[in-house]
Amino acid sequence: MTSRKDAQLTSAIENAVREVLARGLNDPRVRGLITVTGVKVLPDHTKAIISVSVYPEDRQQLTLHGIQSAATYIRREVGDRVQTRQLPEFEFRLDTRLKAQASVLTALEQVRADLEARGVAATPDPGDEADMDHPTHEPEHKEPGA
Questions:
Q1: Quick check: helix, strand or coil at residue 111?
Q2: What is the strand order of the sheet 89-94 is part of?
Q3: What are the start-end ranges of the E strands in 23-85?
Q4: Which residue, of 75, 95, 115, is where some domain finishes?
Q5: Does the residue 133 lie in any domain?
Q6: Residue 103 or 118, more confident
Q7: Residue 59 counted as domain residue
């Protein structure tokens, strides 16, 4: 269970890293859209694992290397913004979950477009379900004992 102080530290580090990266780094390797997708501080506060997403995809590895090289500078800048006795070491990792989710959504959109092109409804029509609940023909009613 995470304590309130741990959650506050994690949030403060995440916000400060976002600020530092938004200002930019003087490293030509660090280019593109960089998004901090999460921060996890180990329970002993010795390390903070910072997940980043980089767009465009072809710049991911080069940008990640640039960010990792600047980890000490980023930590020092974050230390000026976050009030804590000891700031954990920073470890940056590439987060590819957003790209995986985007590829799944793209595939689903392609399937929907293919179904529509074939004339098959991708989602059931709400009117069709109502018709199933109330059939148009009435069943014959038989009198008991008749």
A1: helix
A2: 33-41, 47-55, 89-94
A3: 33-41, 47-55
A4: 95
A5: no
A6: 118
A7: yes
